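Q: What structure does this chain adopt?
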Amino acid sequence: MSDTQITPIALRIDNVARALLQNAKSNGIDVKTLDFNLLDTSNFIRYASDKDEIEWEAIEESELKNIDETDWLNPNFEIKQIYEIEIFTKEDSPLDNLNISIGANSDVTNVFLSIKSGSFIENYDDFENDLYSLVQRRLLRANIKLNIFLFDFKDVLKNIVSKVKVNGKYTFEETELINIAHSFDVMQSVDDELILFYEQKSSALDEFDRIDYAKRGFLVACIEDELLIKYIKPKKGKAGRDCRGKYIEPKDPITKNEPTFSVSEKIEIKEDDDFILYIAKNSGYITFEAGAYDIHEEVDIQEISFKTTGDIDAGIDADVSINVVEKDIFKDAVGMGMSVEVKEITIQGNVGPNARVKAQTAKIDGQTHSSSFVEADELFIEIHKGHAKGNEVTITRLEHGSVEANIVNITQALGGKVIAKEINIELCGSHLNLRASHKIEIHKLRGGENEFIIDTILDANTKENLENNDDAIVELERKNRSLKEELEKLEDLLVQNTPAFKELKKRLIHYKKNGVKMPNSFVKKYKEHIGLEKEVENLKQELFALKRSASSLHIKHDAFQINIMDARIINHDKWKNHNVLKFRMLNPDIELEFIPQEGSTNTTFSLVEVDDEFEIKAID
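A:
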């Protein structure tokens, strides 16, 4: 309660907040010390234009609901309320512990009552009406029109009122936000916008949002039916009216991004009332020259380097073919650290250190650096020193590089490591590690210190499947042991209880024949024994199912090496120097080794079974 008292004063005004401020100022006091009572509300409407001054017409509150949306959204329609209030010095109230405020969205078309956590209400006579009056006065302080856009107070606050009446006191554990008014939302105008989706694909930011100059989008690829550009047409918004009764006119849309470019026949244009869409009809890479967009499939580049192009990421799916024409043996056609991903690529020169090339089809006429990596379904390399991966890889000369593929064909191998299903080498030198699942074939053998290994478990997926299968076998065996132990205990218990159960069963049959009520203890023991028999039977069935699952897993395990008996190591030349043949088995888990004799002409070697033992033998 304020120490400074004012004489209560009655006013008829159209803005309660302004009246309170003026009264506080004239009395030299804080506006927070003032309160008021609402004595009466009058409503007035009119239809006015800029040129006409029309008198206000009084309208009953009951008629407000007859004003339809067309009137509310008419810019010439106006409404005002006149409030008769009594202003006085604020006094203590039983609702002082209720911390409430009025909030709204930016357009004031949605109004909310906020009740702060920690607030509480205690029940007393007429507290319900006081609560409604308090909310109403807060709305007027916020200049919100009454009884027009408001929801029914009693309906909105009934949940709070009922809790107070039931409990005598209600505390708000969390802040509550209650929607108490809604008018006509305004739909803002849409400014035009040109979105270049293809540019977003060539972002030059790294994971820390720093500019990565190596990824500056020399080529931007696209695939068929990909949305390249979208123009959002300007659109005038929809008018609204706020909860203060004010008409809201949306601003005029801004138009400054209208397309001024043209496109080739390889780009489709789709247009409606809202958008213009530019869609790729072909796969390739996008070009913009002389104000026109187009899509091309092939491009010649002198070199791929940090200075000229940066990384190129056209993707495997886009029909982009690159021809890198740098042939100088003292330069790198694909420079140090560069990354290239494209559907087809021909590199007429060298691939530099730490460079990475990925394609569906790749041809390298120069040599690869020892730290480079090349991956392609179909891959040709003239001189290979780095790392290569693909489906079918052809190499003219392997110089201590590594290859992983399904089929590998090498004209001259001078050292290195190859992992594949099938390996075919015309001229085999020294210090080669060849590992295949199906076949290793040598036409001319000139070197030594080579390892020729047959291993049916080569690729990562097969290894993972085998490991998962073996883990499942181990888990089944563990579960099988546990169930067997449990079954043995239950069967022993069943055997021990069987004589007593037979006697109990006879007595129960006797009771039943003579119409004597069976003792509950007998019935309980009978049911326990029957339950024990069922549990034993269930365990037997579960063990049988485990046995079938284990058998299936063991068959699957053996299938992983089933083709090893058909695998071959073939040398069409005489064996010379020191070379080792190896066959890696799973069941039994062993690696067999054989060293052909110097000068031997045995051509074909395989794994054979002799007297329940496995050996590597010539099968010419």
